[in-house]
What does this fold into?
Amino acid sequence: MLDAIAPGKRLGMFGLFLIVYATLTPICWHFTKNFGRHFNKAEKIKLIIFLTLWAVICELWALWYYVSFESTSGFDEAIYGVIAFTVAIDALFMTLGVQFAAKRINNHFLNRMEEKNA
It folds into this structure.
């Protein structure tokens, strides 16, 4: 999406931060609106697994697209390392996002609910 607005620009870590917040905000809003509380431990684990799975699927799709247009000689063994590294990094960022960002976002929506009810 950024490539359409600003060709050649990359957001790097800030882009990942934006994606995590943009993904967690509607989830937290819906959860807080329906349950009026924070996620419990089991819900956090399920959310981390779900978000990581979706990130890995999207990245594997992009990797498959890239590999389908490139010659793959000598790339066969390295692909498993790339996939493992990608899964580990995605799981780390989703865990950090759910542990810290989701708590802040839920606090924001819970405070808004309290102000509305007061």
